[in-house]
Design a protein that fits this description.
63% of the residues lie in helices and 10% in strands. Helix 18 links the parallel strand 9 and strand 10.
Length: 590
């Protein structure tokens, strides 16, 4: 709760003015029945019109002040609650941006979306009710009880009994509803996950004609949420009939006994009229309190979920005196072990000793799941090693300023992501100050200029969200060009030419050798043809290095590499395809 309230910040004044105006509104409303009683008893019944005008004027003044106070309370409550929600979303978003991959792995994407939308909205509504209705309702309840006892203690005893009975009944209703509302948030996550998965993979859904299956999956998630809310709202709907039953029963009882008191002369007509008004006000206030409890219960679950994000501390932080200078692109892995989840003894990488000179081109190959991507992620410190150290330019990556490190280690990931905007807008993610000429030169090195020049608007062509209007190969080349604009000391291509034809792949590699000879290049690939001309090739198997050397050296010394090479040459296979043993391949070649 402390983390949430800290987001009120510049809206503290509105948060304080709201209960002030709410209290003033209640005070004026409580006066109205009292003034009305005076009009009836001292003015109308006695035929004194001067008293009618006097008290009538006071009544109009009190009503006007009450109306104005209510409007001001509503305005300030809206500002405070909306401002809290705005600050909260910004804080959550900034916190997520500071997370490492390890932090993000703890939360599902759908869960984070729900927290920033549904959960924040629940807190916004609850906060608005707390600073306005939660102030108004108790004050009105207490004031109505005080005024009713001031009018007639005997008659108010009946009212108090009814009030206690109503409070017990509403508490039972609210407690049942709270349990159901609390269970609804996990269903929101499932619903958001279903929508997100379907939209992001809509092409696959249509290609495999799975629309009906996806509709049924969404219908199931939506139906489950519907069932919970129907049950909860059905229980909450009992609030009104229960209140009406108790309040009308109390009014009948008070009318019966009050009539006797009026006839007996111990109670005035105006006082009985004001008593009815106070009873209704108290009962309505109690019902409003029950709704507040439901809203607070719903927001409590939201507060816990958002608190998890706000309290999550980034696992990767800059050192106290971060290094902001890199002498070259050399890379050293010294006895590195790595596991995604610490303490589980499930190492993805084991005992990695690797030393790469600045400017070298290193090919990295191996079967799916052998740790290729995990290895290169450690270089730009997307994760921290479990054991050992990774050095870039002779300095441990943990000693660098992370922004500086990642600006000098450019990564083209397996999943290529483009954003809505022009081609130039996307390229300048690599360097926001890049000139048009620099962008064109980077595209030329990535062989992206070939298809860009054929487009009607060329570099001003608009890219749809996710790069929906370009092919997989075109998307990869744009992402490579974007990475080159950073002019990095280290360039990592994580299987980022898989959608590019062999001839274009060769052109890209040749352009690298010519345009960025001093940049250290790490190329992850499944095709040996993509890395056979590298200075050295690293073969990974089961998280360990099984071989390293040139293409010719590995053909002679590494059985796995030789088997896959023969398999690809003859049948186009890769590291995930079944392949014959080295001896069998040799026999087939004889």
């Amino acid at each position: 709760m402390k983390d949430i309230l800290a987001q009120v910040r510049q809206y503290k004044k509105d948060s304080l003015l709201t209960p002030f105006y709410s209290a003033l509104e209640v005070f004026m409303e409580v006066l109205l029945p009292f003034i009305m009683a005076k009009i009836i008893d001292n003015g109308i019944e006695k035929g004194d019109m001067s008293k009618v005008y006097l008290y009538g004027g006071l009544m109009l003044l009190a009503a006007a002040v009450s109306l104005l106070s209510g409007i001001m309370a509503g305005v300030h409550a809206s500002k405070a609650a909306t401002g809290l929600a705005c600050n909260l979303r910004e804080t959550i978003y900034k916190r997520i941006q500071s997370f490492s991959f390890a932090n993000i792995d703890k939360f599902s994407t759908a869960g984070l979306v729900t927290r920033m939308t549904t959960d924040v909205t629940n807190i916004q509504n609850a906060y608005q009710m707390c600073i306005r209705i939660a102030v108004r309702a108790p004050l009105m309840l207490i004031s109505s009880m005080i005024m009713s006892f001031a009018v007639s203690a005997k008659m108010s005893s009946l009212f108090l009994i009814a009030l206690v009975f109503l409070a017990a009944a509403l508490s039972l209703v609210v407690s049942r509803a709270m349990k159901l509302f609390n269970s609804a948030f996990h269903k929101y996550d499932e619903l958001n996950a279903s929508v997100q998965e379907n939209i992001s993979g809509i092409r696959v859904v249509k290609a495999y004609v799975r629309e009906d299956y996806e509709k049924q999956k969404f219908k199931k998630a939506s139906g489950s949420l519907y069932d919970i809310f129907v049950k909860a709202e059905s229980i909450v709907a009992l609030n009104n009939p229960v209140m009406m039953l108790v309040s009308y029963s109390a009014i009948i009882a008070i009318s019966w006994f009050g009539a006797h008191l009026v006839v007996g002369g111990s109670l005035k007509t105006g006082e009985l009229t004001s008593l009815f008004t106070y009873i209704f006000s108290a009962f309505m206030s109690l019902m409003m309190l029950s709704f507040i409890f439901v809203m607070i219960s719903m927001s409590t679950a939201s507060i816990k979920r958002i608190g998890e994000v706000l309290r999550e501390q980034p696992e990767l932080t800059d050192p106290d005196a971060p290094v902001k200078e890199m002498k070259d692109g050399s890379i050293d892995f010294d006895g590195v072990d790595f596991a995604y989840f610490k303490g589980e003894n499930k190492e993805v990488l084991k005992n990695i000793d690797l030393h790469i000179k600045s400017g070298e081109t290193i090919g990295i190959i191996g079967p799916t799941g052998c740790g290729k991507t995990s290895l290169v992620n450690l270089i730009s410190r997307l994760y921290d090693v479990t054991k050992g150290s990774v050095k870039v330019g002779g300095v441990d990556v943990k000693d660098y300023d992370m922004e500086f490190l990642r600006n000098n280690v450019s990564v083209v990931l397996q999943k290529n992501v483009l954003f809505s905007g022009t081609i130039l807008d996307n390229l300048r993610w690599g360097n926001e100050n890049a000139t048009d000429e620099e962008c064109i030169a980077a595209c030329r090195s990535a062989c992206a200029d070939e298809f860009i020049e054929r487009m009607e608007d060329k570099y001003d062509t608009y890219i749809e969200r996710g790069g929906a209007n370009v092919s997989g190969g075109q998307k990869q080349r744009l992402c490579i060009a974007r990475a080159l604009l950073k002019k990095p000391k280290i360039l990592i291509l994580d299987d980022s030419t898989s959608a590019v034809d062999t001839a274009t792949d060769a052109k890209i590699k040749a352009a690298f050798a010519k345009d960025i000879p001093g940049t250290t290049k790490l190329i992850i690939a499944q095709r040996i043809s993509s890395v056979e001309h590298a200075d050295r090739i690293l073969v990974l198997e089961n998280g360990s290095i099984s071989g390293i050397g040139t293409h010719v050296e590995l053909l002679e010394s590494n059985e796995t590499y030789a088997d896959i090479y023969n398999s690809q040459v003859k049948g186009g296979g890769d590291f995930d395809s079944p392949h014959p043993t080295h001896n069998e391949a040799g026999k087939e070649g004889q």
